[in-house]
Design a protein that fits this description.
By secondary structure, the chain is mainly α. It is 38% helix and 0% strand. It has a domain of 43 residues. The N and C termini lie far apart (111 Å).
Length: 87
């Protein structure tokens, strides 16, 4: 079998060429602010427990539901305590 020589080029293929003179800095910045995009970085041990962002969102929604139901069960009465009569 013949050995194929690969030509090494310092140039990128034409389909990967990008004209940086037409680039716009922060093109999507305002849209991201409007849509409320947030980025949260999870610790590696936590990230292993989830397959993706949908799983993280589902877990957080469940936690919020539990938190809301627990808060209602343990909330204190809103009535003010009666003052003791001076004796």
């Amino acid at each position: 079998m013949g050995h194929k020589r690969q030509a090494q080029r310092d140039e990128m293929r034409p389909e990967y060429a990008f004209d940086y003179s037409k680039a716009v800095r922060g093109k999507y910045y305002h849209r991201l602010l409007k849509e409320g995009a947030n980025v949260v970085v999870l610790e590696p041990d936590i990230a292993k427990a989830f397959r993706g962002s949908a799983a993280v969102n589902d877990a957080l929604r469940s936690l919020l539901q539990v938190s809301e139901s627990t808060r209602r069960l343990t909330s204190r009465p809103t009535r003010t305590a009666r003052k003791r009569a001076a004796g």
